[in-house]
Amino acid sequence: MSGKAKTLICDSCRAQCCRYVATQIDPPVRKRDYDHIRWYLLHKNVFVFIDHDEEWYLEFETSCSALQKSNLCGNYDDRPKICIKHGEGRSMCEFISEQEPHVVRFSTAVDFEAYLDKMGMNWRFKKNGKKRKQEVED
To answer: Of the spans 5-14, 52-61, 67-76, which averages the highest pLDDT?
Structure first.
């Protein structure tokens, strides 16, 4: 995408890419991993999603401190490289894409638990006081 075309698209955008931070996390494989994700999702404005490459992300819904009321960047000339590159190549722009940036997005621990149950995952720790040593370590 040329710089001019990108500027025209960005001018009509609501700055969606400036309203969250997402960082890749390891896919959960153990009960402890599932439990950590449940804990993340118990917090306000925290989400977990799986993208089209089956990669897992932890997302924090929070606006960039440089984002102005006009949806323009108050630090445009000195913005981070990740901002400059957003929307180019594999980095999908949420505004212009016809495809959601995620395949599955969890907004609550209950949503995640239902997904795990649907997938047949053994994610629950036993509730009685006699836990096996391996289960405690998981």
So the answer is: 52-61
8 Å CB contact between 81 and 90: no
* Residue 51: both structure tokens together: 């993208």
Q: What is the spatial order of strands in the sheet that 56-61 belongs to?
A: 20-25, 56-61, 46-50, 104-106
3-state class (DSSP) for residue 35? helix
Of 29, 30, 27, the residue nearest 51 (C-alpha): 27
* Helix 31-41 with 109-118: angle, nearest 10 deg: 150
Paired strand residues for 104: 50
Question: pTM here?
Answer: 0.79
Q: What is the pLDDT of residues 59-109, one digit of tens each?
A: 999 999 999 998 889 999 999 998 888 867 554 676 667 778 889 999 999
- Segments forming the whole domain that contains residue 37: 3-137
**Number of independent structural domains in the chain:** 1
Return the number of other C-beta atoms located less than 10 Å from residue 37's C-beta.
20
Asked whether 42 and 109 are in contact (CB, 8 A), the reply is yes
